[in-house]
Design goal:
0% strand
Length: 65
Amino acid sequence: MRIGAVLIVIWLIVGFVAAGQRGYLGGSSSSCAKAGNTIITVVAGPLNYIGVNPKVNCDLPQPSQ
């Protein structure tokens, strides 16, 4: 159990590093797609370094006027 928890933490740390290198953690603009890309990149972890490039496309409806 303890080894699994350590592996998950390391996996997520690598994912945060990958998200930082791609510029997802900086900047002030936020959108559904940017948040989705950041979350998916962190969850993908080390897979980012073997060619996985997860992207999220969010098309939210515009409010009526």
